Amino acid sequence: FDGAKTDDQRIELAYKLCYSRTPSAEETQRLLDFLTSSKSSADVKEKDAELAQWTTVCHALLAGAEFRYLD
Description:
There is one protein chain. The chain has helices at 7-19, 25-37, 46-63, 65-68. By secondary structure, the protein is an all-alpha fold. The protein starts with 6 loop residues before the first helix and ends with a helix. The chain is globular, with a radius of gyration of 13 Å. The chain is 68% helix and 0% strand.
């Protein structure tokens, strides 16, 4: 995700890598909402919290039926 500077760009890149397509506006908004709501309030370094958030996003994309099955 080094080349992507914003969360929107990172989401788009993740979708392209996982699903070979760009996300819909609704999919992008859902992930942006998740990233906003999952901001850590604990004593976790900001970089570690961000890594944990994006790890969760990637796990969710890889666990999706769209990733597992071919049309």
